[in-house]
Amino acid sequence: MQVKETTAEGLKRVIEVVIPASDLEARLQTRLHEAKDQARLKGFRPGKVPLAHLRKTYGRSMMAEIINQILNETPRSVIAERNERSAMRPEIEMSEDAGEAEKVLGGKEDFRFKISYEMLPAFDLKDTAGIKVERPVVEVPEEEVEDQVKRIAENARSYEPTEEGAQDGDRVTLDFVGKVDGEAFDGGTAADQNLVLGSKTFIPGFEDQLLGAKAGDEKAVDVTFPADYGAENLAGKDATFDVTVKAVARPAELELDDEVAKRLGIESLERLRTVVREQIESQYGLATRQKVKRQLLDALDKDYDFELPERLVQAEFDNIFAQVQQELKSAGKSFEDEETTEEKAREEYLVLAKRRVRLGLVLSEMGEKAGVQISDEEMQRALFDQVRRFPGQEQQIYEYYQKNPEAVASLRAPLYEEKVVDWLLTKIDVTDKTVTKEELMKEDEEPLALAS
């Protein structure tokens, strides 16, 4: 095998590889001899098929397999021998001339191809001891816990039948059939449906028209589906619901006690308060983590400036911009609605993509030097979490990750990033600062430097 570097510009490398026809022939002969004892061809005894006949029958397909093996193995081995690391999967360039390909497959011509890739940049890690960050901490007040407990307890509130007209807060039990242009539509029919008036869980205007209704009443409720309604066939359409009110019930006085907690599946009111506090603290803890991480990454960003692999930056930019466009589409907005232009947005998100790639490389290098590892158990847990997001498709999703190393790498990357951040937080100066809930939850003006 002959290897020659033809391009070395910045991080870009192009390597020309030539596999002599004699080497291809040697590999083919090895394959033929291995297959000779196993070949089963009509008219020949097992193990007695002449090599010439075997070559005539299988030579071309075997050479194609040899070529594919060379293309799969050579880029990795060549780059490793050069003590380099490719930023992304190398690109292979071969001749598209059919005649030349036939000569190679026939063992009559050398096999030539080029390997194009960008190296991961080399840079020196800097001391992190001087980095200081403030960890914003919110002290959860008892009132907030109690308010949340009351909201949760509403789910366990009991209702008592009433013969009076329905009021806000009352629970009505309904049968209904929804129609558009006089025709019933899918999903618009229900029986014994409970609805708490004022909860705003139904289409706007539906609940208001049931105020004053009594058990046994039949009403025609006219509504208009919102323009952004999830079902496109109903969005913006006028509809009529033929409603039968089967019962009206008034909420009983809500008393916070152990019985309410038990109806919620928790052994006592005190335990309910503890669970609620833990949930609130967990929510604030996530926000605190993001604030601390942002400060840390901002500090690192100031310390590093080096050439980046263009393809890696482009791939990151494409991911970011596709997400931005999808979010705008889902919200029915344009760049102009966000007081910008697509061109300006592209410039801004390209800067973000470069920052993400640069910081990703820095964190990766730090993690490698620190010996940060992701265990098999952690990867399995991440995979199972991903699979559970697609109920009914678990097997297909699991097989997808089994067959796609790049997809598995996409699960590993955020886990590794968080573990490196955890390690860094033990090496820098972190001080706690008590803040209000509003200060903690205030969104940063710029998006987080790395995807979490």
Automatic annotation (TrEMBL):
Residues 169-251 form the PPIase FKBP-type domain. Transmembrane segments: none annotated. The gene is tig. The keyword Cell division applies. Its main location: cytoplasm. GO terms for cellular component: cytoplasm. This is Trigger factor. Keywords: Cell cycle, Cell division, Chaperone, Cytoplasm, Isomerase, Rotamase. InterPro entries: PPIase_dom_sf, PPIase_FKBP_dom, Trig_fac, Trigger_fac_C, Trigger_fac_C_sf, Trigger_fac_ribosome-bd_bac, Trigger_fac_ribosome-bd_sf, Trigger_fact/SurA_dom_sf. Its EC number is 5.2.1.8. The keyword Cell cycle applies. It comes from Plantimonas leprariae. The lineage of its organism: Bacteria, Pseudomonadati, Pseudomonadota, Alphaproteobacteria, Hyphomicrobiales. It is an enzyme of class 5 (isomerase). Belongs to the FKBP-type PPIase family. Tig subfamily. It is found in: Cytoplasm. One of its GO terms (biological process) is protein unfolding. Involved in protein export. Acts as a chaperone by maintaining the newly synthesized protein in an open conformation. Functions as a peptidyl-prolyl cis-trans isomerase.
